[in-house]
Design a protein that fits this description.
- The chain is mainly β.
- Strands 1, 14, 15, 16, 17 and 18 form a 6-stranded mixed sheet that branches. A 5-stranded mixed sheet has the order 2-19-20-12-13, with no helix packed on it. Strands 5, 6, 7, 8 and 9 form a 5-stranded antiparallel sheet that branches.
Length: 297
């Protein structure tokens, strides 16, 4: 971690503090209120040649949100494709899958309700009532669970891919063991007639780590009250250029010669793209904090 520029920011008073916009840099984005978590819908096809094939499709789940996904192939298993949120017109094998992310355990396992139905088999839609199977599972990072398996049909014998059957699986990608990220932090406040006043810090972190930051005191009134702003940033997941994280901001005010007076703290789970600048209000008003995450390697 690198510490921020040292120094005190002197201002006319707390009422004069306003949030201002950085004169240069990327456009800001609003933080999303909740985290999303990546799961993968896998439809591996086993083959008599010993060379499996198939598709793996990542989806983002939000706690409490129910999603319907169709995992199918075409008229034969040689035509297996990516899972999607709408059924394909030429489906001949596959499932309707409904997933609900209930909670995330302390061990970062996803508790998921999965309900699936076989809706296509042997190259055609299944006629009549279809049984739905429900299962609750805990999916750790790098974990994989097979839900069902469909054997190949008559049409696959002449299809040329030597398919034996297709499975329906849920999985999570393992957490990368490498990867270095740089986090830029700007503490924003208003000044009277002098324009923008900021403090900036740059921290380095890795996936799964929590990095702490501490800004220099901000003088609210000359010879009077000071504000301390500090917090932590946890990088929790990364998928397709977007990251899930948790930001905690705490503020404490003090008066010269007196003990610290806790003023409050806030925690923000959010999802954003690498390179985006996202702004958060510091507790008790008067300040904002802007963050930007970049991947170094």
């Amino acid at each position: 971690m690198a510490s921020g520029h040292r120094g005190e920011l002197r201002m006319a008073g707390l009422l004069a503090l306003v949030v201002v916009v950085l004169s240069a840099g990327p456009a800001m984005a609003q933080a999303q209120a909740t985290n999303t978590y990546a799961v993968v819908i896998d439809t591996p096809v086993s083959s008599s040649t010993g060379r499996p094939f198939g598709a793996s499709t990542p989806f983002l789940l939000t706690p409490g949100e129910r999603r319907v996904i169709f995992a199918t192939s075409g008229a034969n298993l040689c035509m297996a494709g990516n899972a999607r949120t709408e059924s394909r017109a030429d489906a001949g094998f596959g499932w309707r899958l409904e997933v609900l992310l209930r909670e995330i355990t302390d061990k970062n396992e996803l508790v998921i309700d999965a309900t699936w139905q076989r809706q296509w088999q042997n190259g055609r839609a299944i006629e009549g009532p279809v049984t739905a199977i429900r299962r609750q599972l805990q999916l750790p990072e790098g974990g994989r669970v097979q839900l069902d398996y469909l054997p190949a049909g008559e049409a696959d014998a002449d299809a040329g891919c030597h398919a034996v059957g297709m499975a329906l699986e849920l999985s999570r990608r393992p957490r990368p063991s490498t990867g270095l990220f740089e986090l830029d932090l700007w503490l924003m406040a208003g000044a009277s007639a002098d324009g923008t006043v900021t403090q900036r810090q740059t921290l380095r972190t890795r996936l799964g780590d929590a990095a702490s930051f501490y800004f220099d005191d901000v003088v609210l009134e000359p010879g009077g009250a000071h504000a301390q702003v500090e917090g932590s940033f946890e990088l929790r997941d990364l998928l397709s250029g977007r990251f899930d994280s948790r930001l905690t901001i705490a503020r404490k005010d003090r008066i010269e010669g007196r003990p610290l007076l806790p003023s409050g703290s806030s925690t923000f789970p959010f999802n954003a793209a690498l390179g985006e600048v996202v702004e958060f209000r510091v507790p008790m008003g008067g300040f904002s904090l802007r963050v930007r995450l970049r991947q170094l390697r």
